[in-house]
Each structure stands twice: as structure tokens, then as C-alpha cells.
Amino acid sequence: MSDKIRLLVGSDSAGFDYKDAIYADMQADDRVEVVDLGVYAGDLDGGSYPSVAIAAGEKIRAGEADRAILFCGTGIGVAIAANKVPGIRATVAHDSFSVERSILSNDCQVLTLGQRVIGLQLARRLAKEWLGYVFDPSTPSGPKVDEIVEYEDSLTG
Ligand SMILES: O=C[C@H](O)[C@H](O)COP(=O)(O)O
Asked: What pTM was computed for the model?
């Protein structure tokens, strides 16, 4: 069995250019196996930010993928939508420290980035950095994430 990160990328039309650039980066990154959930060139109105974010979150929830990097104009809409999927922790993070802590503190499965907010080269760098972090549940951050999971489990059964 491969030990590569099963990564999804996706966007709405406002995040398409960055999604495509980072999809290309990830195809060349031997740490990951990447799947593009769209939107696709030629069909830029083919998906809204909620639809692609919920689709990504549901694939992670179902165990079909490990992580996702999602794009919209700000990164906010895809984060909100992905967070509606039970069990998903998604965040927008546009600086290196937040990208690090989104894994090491929060065990986020989803990073979101805003094409209208940051430059492409920063987005590419942040995506690569994010994939290099691994959450360690034995750290003091572990029980805090557990508390979130337990609360959510109490709601969803
Ligand atoms: O959060 C939403 C995204 O930025 C999206 O790409 C743009 O949404 P809007 O068209 O509703 O502004």
C-alpha cells in the first residue's frame, strides 16, 4: 500500500488559475497522489465554491482521500463549506506560521487559499509547506482536537 498523501485539489472559477498551478506542482511532487475535483478549463462555471468544497470534504470523510487544498476568491467560502462536512477541519491560512499550526495544532485535513488575496508564488510555497507537516496526537494539542471531535460526535451520533 502506498504511503503517499492522497490529496484533492478543487476550486470555483475565482480560484481556478491557482488550483491548476498547484495541481501541476502536486503532480510532480512524489509525496502525494493528487486528484483534481475541478472546476475544469472550458467549464469554469461548472461548479460553485460550496459544491466543490463539500465534495472534497465528503471524500475525506469517506476515507477516499487524506487531505485537500481548495481555492476560491478569498479561501473563506470553501473553508466554510468544507467545515460543514462532519469531521472536517478546514481553514484558510495565508502565512507560513498559520499553515504550520493548521496541522500541528489543529490537525486540519483541508487548507484553503484565496486567489484574490495572495500571490501565486506564495500560494505554491504554502501548499508545499503544508504537506510537509504531520499532526502528532501525543502533543498537548492532541486533547484539544479530541475535544472538538467529541463535541461533533455528540451532535451527529
Ligand atoms: O468565499 C467566496 C469566494 O471568494 C468566491 O470565490 C467568490 O464568491 P462571491 O462571488 O459570492 O463573492
From this structure: 0.97
Q: What is the pLDDT of residues 44-55, one digit of tens each?
A: 888 899 999 999
Query: Is there a catalytic annotation at residue 108?
Result: no
Centre of ligand 1 to C-alpha 58, Å, is: 21
Nearest-angstrom CA–CA distance, 107 and 74 = 21
- Give the active site residue among 72, 81, 123, 131: 72
CA gap 9, 35 in Å, rounded: 6
State the CATH number of the domain containing residue 46.
3.40.1400.10
* Cα–Cα distance measured from residue 78 to residue 82, given in angstroms and rounded to the nearest whole number: 6
Say how many domains are in the chain.
1
Ligand 1 atom closest to the Cα of residue 80 is: 1
Strand partners, 10: 70
